[in-house]
Amino acid sequence: MQLGLIGLGKMGGNMRERLRRAGHEVVGFDRNPDVADVRTLPALVKALDAPRVVWVMVPAGDPTRETVAKLADLLEPGDLVIDGGNSRFTDDFENAKLLGEKKIGYVDCGVSGGIWGLENGYGLMCGGDKKWVTKAMPIFDALRPEGPREEGFVHAGKVGAGHYTKMVHNGIEYGLMAAYAEGYELLEKKDIVTDVPGAFKAWSRGTVVRSWLLDLMVDALEENPHLDDVSDYTNDSGEGRWTVEEAIALSVPMPVISASLFARFASRQSSSPTMQAVAALRGQFGGHQVMTIAEGEKLRQGDVPATAKRSARKESPTKQAAKRGSAKKASAKAASTASKANVGAAKKAASSGRASSTQATDMADSARGQKRAAKKTAKKA
Prior knowledge:
Blueprint: E1 2-6, H1 10-21, E2 25-29, H2 41-47, E3 53-56, H3 62-74, E4 80-83, H4 89-100, E5 105-112, H5 117-120, E6 123-127, H6 130-135, H7 137-143, E7 153-157, H8 161-189, H9 196-203, H10 212-223, H11 239-249, H12 255-267, H13 273-286, H14 293-300, H15 317-352, H16 357-380
Parallel strand pairs: 1-2, 1-3, 3-4, 4-5, 6-7
Antiparallel strand pairs: 5-6
Helix pairs in contact: 3-4, 8-11, 8-12, 9-10
């Protein structure tokens, strides 16, 4: 089958190669002339026999909308456009309407597989009329993984359903990655666990948490067991946000995916205004020390002078191991102290017969509030 493919980046370029290996004729266009088969969109359309099938694989948003609009003027009735990027599903409604007015078909197709899709195949989630999906099925079959069609491809529903399904897929991906990452941190902090990469690898076969993401985590830890010099700054592509927005719109409780999205937001803050407010409040009601940013940073760095600091990459494995050992000992000591304090407080409260500490705190807070209100009234007078 013949296909026009617009966008030959990491995904598009590999998709062209996989399709060609399957015997399909692919005419590719990209702004980078070094990878393009033709120089312009009109040239791409001219190189294809009618009825044409054109796959758009460019960044979501304006680049995709603009490309579809140009194709609407270049293609003819009976041609088909497939949007395989990560477009928001609401864009599909407008694209389908624009093309439909000229009797050009439209299919939205969510694609998963990343850089591994060339060899392993791509998971495909399509939306649109059955006749258009059927027309492009030879292309979908060549791109999806080998095996039963339903295990790598779905015609999820009407226009927009493909991208909506891919959006939810990516939201789930956020949650899974966050769960593995939290487990990693807990294992890394515990002093009795000495082989964290081995623990993850042991989970990769025969356990209920095995997955391709877990396999990738194993690969990452085998390359860098303690993730030395890996920044925690994490971007988001937008689909996690759209998933949470849909959860709110449809009143679907989604605490895990929401928390994983917010964790990414937190990773991009040099300091947290939220926790600054918490620190200030602790100082107000409990008289706890409110540190400056410099003082807090000293604690994070273990009070090491700036001149003695080195990046994790430059430090020797022995020093890195010593730091981790020190952190684990401190963590174990703090946990033990906190646990004993909690148990002691609980025993004391149970034997005293007094009102609960919560009730006592509420009463004290009310009294302080009344005093503050009286002072403000007196000042105004």
